[in-house]
Amino acid sequence: MGELNFLTGQTAYLMARATEAGRIHRITRAQFRRLLATEPDLSDILLRTFLARRDLLRDGPAARAIAIVGSELSAESLALRTFAARQRLAHLWLDPDSAAGRALESITLTDNSTGHISEHLCRGLFCLIGARPATEWLAGLALDKAGFIRTDTQLNPEELGAIWTALGRPPLPFETSMPTVFAAGDVRLTSLKRVASAVGEGASAVRSIHTALGPGA
Ligand SMILES: Cc1cc2nc3c(=O)[nH]c(=O)nc-3n(C[C@H](O)[C@H](O)[C@H](O)COP(=O)(O)OP(=O)(O)OC[C@H]3O[C@@H](n4cnc5c(N)ncnc54)[C@H](O)[C@@H]3O)c2cc1C
Fold it and tell me: Is the pTM of this model over 0.85?
């Protein structure tokens, strides 16, 4: 449905997904034309489908195939836009004097392993460049190679040392290699790096703090 080539005879490959049980009828182009001529209701539905599809193409990525860049005050860009409108060409118009015209249009990516360069149309760019914990100053705590703080079960019992032997207990949840020093949130090794989990870890660490500092500690 909605394929104009059925009328024009051009070859097209079509993929469809049936969402309800039904039947598929295969008919020739001549039969299809006859149906359109004799069944005004069906013909109306199909025409509306073609129009809807054209609107979809006009608003979709296909519309970006032709881009006219020019100020709305420029006679040349007006001539180009008038031509595109008359020819009913789906196109994108970018006015460099407007806020939209100054927005990002595309990015060029270079694959460092192959040197392959490709351009991708896009209107926004979010750059996530990884995390580096600011723990250089925490020399006394057990950290992993990247500098994240190791806590509780991430600490190797053999390397905990005499201070823990004297204390007579293993590190509590969120407790670092230094007794009564706790770590929660992004800086902690294997934490989820999310706001909700950082807040949750902080709240959970309070329980350990009570245990470590409370009566009987
Ligand atoms: C770009 C970006 C987008 C994100 N988007 C999302 C999202 O959509 N949803 C989500 O859930 N999470 C998101 N996150 C992750 C989220 O921000 C973190 O998981 C969360 O903020 C961790 O909280 P935190 O308290 O552990 O650390 P932080 O929020 O980093 O707080 C640590 C604080 O300690 C301070 N500090 C550091 N060193 C010292 C020092 N020596 N002395 C004193 N203060 C110090 C820092 O200045 C900072 O204020 C995003 C993170 C980034 C970077």
Answer: no
